[in-house]
Specification:
The structure holds two protein chains of two kinds. Chain A is mainly α. Helices cover 73% and strands 1% of the residues of chain A. Chain A is built from 19 helices and two strands. The longest helix of chain A is centred in the first third of the chain and has 35 residues. Chain B is of the alpha/beta class. Classes of the chains: A mainly alpha, B alpha/beta.
Chain lengths: 536, 249
């Protein structure tokens, strides 16, 4: 069966994948800075949790009884499984340079390599954090070696979640290959599923606020899993007698892992060697030429805007980062579900304003230089001025936002939003969209990213993480403040006084000023842009 | 008797309603340099992917040195495949890339180290061998990709546009290498649009048009088919056999 051979080449592939991951970060100062920012943003909550868990440990030291954590063990295991499925579908399910690798080694070695690399990646992120937290609890409880025992007991389970998650992710990819789903329908379906989960969970929580205990993680605890996890507490005052349950769970985990590896190899071979007919079939679709409708046909900037919109509709996966726009409105779901029914229409419309603003700021404009890297030789050598080019992208982004704004607004009208509020919100929301697009253009031009990454099976250029973080902190926060004020005014809680008007004028100045300045800086950058500056 | 180095029997590939390869029958003897020609979209790359097992045929069979291409483990040792876009990792240096491939192919690292140095020297890459590939020129990338393709001395080489992006000196080095390998018994399946390369190297030419092999034979035989006056070039022959009326004949 050549298992030994595949393990050896698989470990080489894993090693190479990890080295490439590290080098792709360390060789680029901007990516390195982003990694540091992410690291710090993860370490901060961990450092806050550390003393909390030490205290928790101290509190249970005397009782020698564990707090009820069975549900959390189950939740963490399920979470890791979902993470693994997601990572497989979005990234690890694909191989870079498939012609080289698949004509050189057996697919099983490739699967071992990719899973091995993913295991290490998750170990140094999720695993280390988990061990630190366990150690904190152990220090408090007087058993500082708890982190180590948790690592030893958790490793097979951790490995199992990655391999089984890989099977799940590969299964989805093979299903997609077989059924040849329309990519656009998949993108819309994915967003809808996310919205259902985001809003559904908030709805669920709000409906059961009176009986919150029903939501306790303990209610979903898988007892044998917890029994296995308790092995980590062996040789501690919290140790419980070991029955056959934990051993059976351990055996199932250990035996099913290579089984899952075999299944994932079969699935991966099917997926990697399949011919995607969607590309071939679509190339035969007659589009009727490039003829922008009115008003896009009125100006060269309109042409650029229409081109960007058409390409986004045909290849939505190239704009996967806009997905964060939907996470930005998720908190609104809780407010929505807790509000009286009479307010639902208005709240939905206000949520639509935020969504539309974030979409406008993230689509086409958050990485205007990076996204154009390949086309720059064409773009820079046309008579199109940088101003026209950027204006076109801003128009395209604003149009997309206005479409979202209008759609959500009409939906809000159908559930009780009064026409007066709709008429007031629409121009204000459109203004937000335009301001976000203008602001993002400068922000994105200042922090361009032309590195391609493999996401959702597509080579795509995404905005830099730094630009995305700055964008969300400024635009999302700014839009939320504006929306809250709008809510207060439209609900009649805030009467229009000279002070309020003065506040609104200040707010508008704070929004419009930086947006215009940012846009102008982007134009200046584009005017002095050379290929060498982008491609290096 | 040795089986043909490359053999296909009614090999066919369709994508939905689109026929990429109609029914390809090939039988190429060991040591042959086979020039595989055809206009863009004729099905050349599809054929190469089928011959490497990277794509499954809709029907028909293919084998390399008597081994069915579906036997992936054996085929990996038999074939060296250089696709049109060099399969390299930009984060590695040239030397690291080659050593990585040595590891993947489970070759003897000590013995291959010497060969790597020889090949790097042969292709003027010694000085740049420890630089990251992401900083290489197109030609340098192509040369590293070619070296990694021949490192394991495969009996069958599938080369898709190997001289693309190479300067005349590098192209000459590569052509000499191909000729040497052929003399040593390696079968080279060479797909290219650069007809002088085929004219210079190929023993046999096959012309694919719209998924169908419309001409096959020695370069002289194929050229003769184009014109009776004897002044025709391979380019004339290519244009003649890939024009609609001729192809439909």
């Amino acid at each position: 069966m050549n298992w030994r051979e595949d393990l050896r080449t698989g470990s080489m592939i894993a090693n190479a994948e990890l080295r490439r991951s590290v080098r792709s970060i360390t060789s680029d100062r901007r990516r390195l800075a982003e990694a540091v920012v992410i690291g710090v943003s993860v370490l901060l909550p961990v450092s806050v949790l550390f003393p909390v868990l030490v205290g928790k440990g101290e509190s249970v030291r005397a009782s020698t009884a564990l707090p009820p954590v069975a549900g959390w063990v189950t939740l963490v295991t399920i979470g890791l499984l979902i993470l693994s499925v997601y990572r497989t579908v979005s990234a690890v399910g694909a191989i870079d340079q498939d012609a080289l690798v698949l004509s050189t080694v057996h697919p099983r070695a490739v699967v071992i390599g990719l899973i091995g690399a993913e295991w290490v990646r998750q170990l140094v992120t999720v695993g280390v954090i988990g061990c630190v937290l366990f150690t904190a609890f152990g220090v408090g409880a007087g058993v500082p070696w708890l982190g180590l025992t948790a690592f030893l007991v958790g490793t097979p389970l951790f490995w199992w979640t990655i391999v089984v998650g890989y099977v799940g992710g590969m299964g989805l990819l093979v299903l997609d290959d077989r059924l040849q789903f329309d990519r656009r329908l998949l993108a819309v379906g994915g967003v809808l599923v996310f919205l259902v989960v985001a809003f559904g969970s908030q709805l669920y929580v709000s409906r059961f606020t009176g009986a919150i205990t029903a939501l306790s993680p303990e209610t979903i605890a898988i007892k044998p899993l917890f029994a296995y996890a308790q092995l980590a507490f062996i040789a501690t005052p919290f140790a419980t007698p070991i029955g056959s349950g934990p051993l059976i769970v351990g055996l199932v985990v250990i035996v099913s892992t290579p089984l899952a590896l075999s299944i994932s190899t079969r699935l991966a071979t099917q997926h990697w060697l399949v011919d995607d007919q969607r590309t071939t079939n679509r190339s035969h679709v007659t589009t009727g030429g490039f003829s922008p409708p009115v008003p896009f046909s009125w100006s060269p900037a309109g042409f650029v805007a229409w081109g960007a919109l058409v390409r986004a509709i045909r290849a939505p996966r190239n704009h996967g980062h806009v997905f964060s726009a939907f996470t930005a409105v998720a908190p609104f779901a809780g407010v929505f579900t807790n509000a009286p029914t009479s307010e639902h229409g208005l709240l939905l419309a206000l949520g639509g304003v935020i969504l539309a603003t974030v979409v406008s700021g993230e689509l086409f404009v958050l990485n205007p230089i990076g996204e154009l890297t390949e086309q720059l030789p064409l773009v820079l050598l046309t008579r199109l001025s940088p101003r026209t080019l950027l204006r076109g992208r801003v128009i395209g982004a604003t149009t997309a936002g206005v479409v979202v704004l209008t759609s959500v607004g009409l939906l809000a009208l159908s559930i009780g939003l009064d026409l007066r509020s709709f008429v007031l919100l629409w121009p204000v929301g459109s203004g937000f969209c335009l301001a976000a697009a203008l602001f993002s253009t400068g922000l994105g031009a200042a922090m361009p990213s032309s590195a391609t990454t493999q996401e959702w099976g597509t080579e795509t250029v995404t905005p830099s993480i730094a630009a995305q973080i700055v964008f969300l902190f400024t635009v999302w926060d700014g839009a939320t403040i504006g929306v809250v004020v709008l809510w207060l005014v439209l609900s009649g809680w805030l009467t229009v006084t000279p002070v309020v008007v003065g506040g609104l004028v200040c707010y508008s100045a704070v929004v419009i000023g930086p947006a215009l300045a940012s846009y102008r800086s982007a134009v200046r950058r584009f005017e002095s842009l050379t290929l060498a500056a982008v491609i290096g | 008797m040795c089986p043909p180095a490359i053999e296909t029997d009614a090999l066919r590939k369709t994508y939905g309603n689109t026929v990429a390869l109609q029914s390809l029958d090939l039988s190429i003897e060991a040591g042959t340099i086979y020039g595989f020609l055809g206009p863009n979209g004729a099905g050349k790359t599809t054929t190469m992917r089928l011959l490497t097992g990277l794509s499954d045929p809709t029907s028909g069979t293919a084998s390399l040195s008597g081994t069915p291409v579906g036997d992936r483990r054996s085929i990996a040792d038999i074939v060296g495949y250089l696709p049109e876009s060099p399969p390299l990792y930009g984060e590695f240096s040239g030397r690291e890339q080659l050593e990585y491939v040595v590891g993947l192919r489970m070759l003897d690292a000590d013995r291959t180290a010497e060969r790597i140095e020889e090949l790097l020297a042969q292709f003027d890459l010694i000085e740049d061998a420890d630089r990251r590939i992401s900083g290489y020129s197109t030609g340098m990338k192509q040369k590293v990709a070619y070296i990694q393709t021949i490192l394991h001395d495969p009996p069958v080489l599938l080369l898709d546009e190997p001289t693309a992006g190479l300067d005349p000196r590098a192209a000459r080095q590569l052509k000499e290498s191909i000729a040497q390998l052929s003399e040593a018994g390696t079968t080279v399946f060479l797909s290219t649009h650069i007809l002088p390369v085929v004219e210079e190297l190929a023993d046999t030419i096959g012309v694919l048009y719209d998924g169908e092999l419309v001409a096959e034979g020695s370069p002289d035989a194929v050229t003769e088919r184009a014109e009776a006056d004897g002044d025709a070039t391979l380019e004339d022959a290519f244009l003649a056999v890939t024009s609609e009326p001729m192809a439909n004949r």
